[in-house]
Design brief:
The structure is a homodimer. Helix content of chain A is 37%, strand content 14%. By secondary structure, chain A is α/β, with parallel strands linked by helices. The first copy, chain A, has a domain at 3-72 and 109-241 and 330-342: Aldolase class I (TIM Barrel). Chain A is globular and about 55 Å long. Chains A and B meet through helix 9, helix 10 and strand 10 of A and helix 9, helix 10 and strand 10 of B.
């Protein structure tokens, strides 16, 4: 039961879920200071930005921190696929007065590489978490040699076994309720993705490692239920989205507070990979899953200018409104306070 | 915490999920005798068969029993839709030497009606559960006047509120993990269906009634976790599928025991409504969701002769292999023993 606290060196068996594009160092620092494992999502940051956020964190706490990276293989752009994808958005470009010829590359997601391995060895975070599998054995070895514990997400039992065989220290069982990008990596199939209640005990049974439950956990009772199902700890993201330490946009905050947040779906429209967000106009009209979307992360460029224009009008029709299936835990309170509330039934 | 036992008059807060087409009275009797609420699925039975199964049950136990009915509106058959649907199966008919002109109507699912209301008043089950909403107010009133408690399934918060407004005594929160037909009735959308871990606490929060958790519950720890999340009790189906009292077919049993059971999906191919089953050849090749399927229950006729021929060869390629996302609770032990094991952490 204390396996995770021992592994991470934290007071609580809680990971604040890394939420790329939404949070930076402040949230990680606040959760870490409160006794959880704070996470800095690095996939959309360059080395200089990561160093800057790291400095913010270390100015506030010496407690354990997790740096999170993506492990996808960047695809080659296919001009025909890209062109067809932009054609799908033509009515929206016309509506918003956007010239498709001016569209820039979308927000990049960089896979873990040599430069990032150097950075891990320089910053020495206590934990490194990966999404979409693991990097090469050589890169993984460099992370290990820095002293970091290594964890990654599994959305299926075979993914958990694959990670265990490669020597991770713990596994996040990411149930279908979870917000943002699914960590699925041994398949691109989403029809067979599994809910937390079913996935968690099966992964606990299949591997001899601490398992961290993610997806739908939004209260102290949810944390207790996950531990009851065999989890060594929990990863919570959505519940933190309204905290003042998070850079959640105004349209995203408004959506989270509205009844619309009851309806989320997996969509590949925003990035090319399935991710869970609140259903909005773009998801309703084009998807939520489209076989026309270019591979991750190339799909993102088509909607980026629409998002910018719509958000400027206070409208989230083209914004990825990432959220899990249970927003009832979202509170406009300090992240430290939320952390303590989630851990109320622990100890 | 004892609300459900008081409501049903049972020792345990457990409903054996009604599984139409797979189980008859023996399972209901065995679970009832062990202290749970045994359920007889009536949607595929005529009045004479229900009376016969009721007699089987009452010869074994006087404990509370649930009769389960469907509340769909039977659609009018559309010849063009039917013809097109059979064309989708043409290669399979050729493979199995079936003349499409000889195909009979598929297994019917009868909605709750006057005759069934008469039967409820005659048999006086302690509980009546409905799937796909509720029958007309007049029919519902007749059920109530028989003395039966009334329950129904919700897959969304608004469905739970709709049921609560119509005066049900308790609500089953059916998470996406659950096997068989989803109870969804206010929408035909499945992209936004919710996992148990997220759905259950939201329904508990939204209605002032006992809530029964369903979907992914397969162990005593699962039961305890559901109660931790606010459930007054649980409904368990899949775990009973290998019990000797259940008429699970040989191909279905073999699939449940195999690694294939890790991969289930929602499919409308077998009936026209989304239901969760183990992925097989028909689901892989035609779906799992097809917009060509006629409305429930008309879709069933096209695959029925293929199922019969394939099963005779010991092959489940065309069989609805209904199962939830967690088959780890399936045990080849008496249903009474399984019931007691599931209730191990209760009391």
């Amino acid at each position: 039961m204390k396996a995770l606290q021992q592994l991470f060196g934290t007071r609580y068996p809680l990971i604040q879920a890394p939420m790329a594009g939404v949070q930076r160092g402040e949230l990680a620092a606040a959760v870490a200071a409160a006794g959880g494992l704070g996470s800095l999502p690095c996939a959309m940051l360059d080395a200089a930005s990561i160093r800057r956020e790291w400095a913010v964190i270390r100015s506030q706490t010496a407690n354990p921190i997790n740096l999170n990276f993506f492990c996808h293989t960047p695809p080659a752009a296919d001009e025909a696929v890209e062109r067809h994808w932009r054609e799908c958005f033509a009515p929206y470009y016309a509506e918003y007065g956007i010239d498709p010829a001016t569209i820039q590359a979308g927000p990049g997601r960089r896979p873990f590489d040599d430069e990032m391995a150097d950075l891990v060895c320089e910053l020495r975070p206590e934990v490194v978490s990966f999404h979409f599998g693991l990097p090469t054995q050589e890169l993984l070895q460099r992370v290990r040699s820095s002293g970091a514990k290594v964890i990654s997400s599994a959305t299926r039992v075979d993914e958990a076994q694959w990670l265990a065989e490669r020597g991770v220290d713990a596994i996040i069982a990411q149930g279908i309720e979870a917000g943002g990008h699914r960590g699925v990596f041994l398949s691109d199939e989403i029809d067979t993705q599994v809910g937390t209640f079913a996935l968690l005990p099966q992964i606990v049974q299949a591997v001899d490692l601490p398992v961290i439950a993610a997806g739908g956990i939004a209260s102290a009772e949810g944390v207790a239920a996950a531990l009851q199902l065999g989890a060594a700890g929990v990863q919570v993201g959505t519940a933190y989205l309204l905290c003042p330490e998070v850079q959640t946009s105004a349209v995203h905050r408004a959506a989270l507070r509205s009844d619309a947040a009851r309806f989320t779906a997996l969509t590949n429209l925003f990035s090319g990979r399935p991710a869970r967000g609140i259903v909005n106009r773009m998801m309703r009209e084009l998807g939520p899953i489209s076989s026309d979307a270019p591979p991750f992360p190339l799909a993102s460029s088509a909607s980026a200018p629409l998002r910018a224009k719509a958000e400027a009008q206070g409208n989230g029709d083209f914004t990825p409104l990432w959220a899990g299936q249970n927003v009832t835990g979202c509170r406009e309170i300090a992240a430290a306070e939320l952390t303590c509330e989630l851990m109320r039934l622990i100890e």
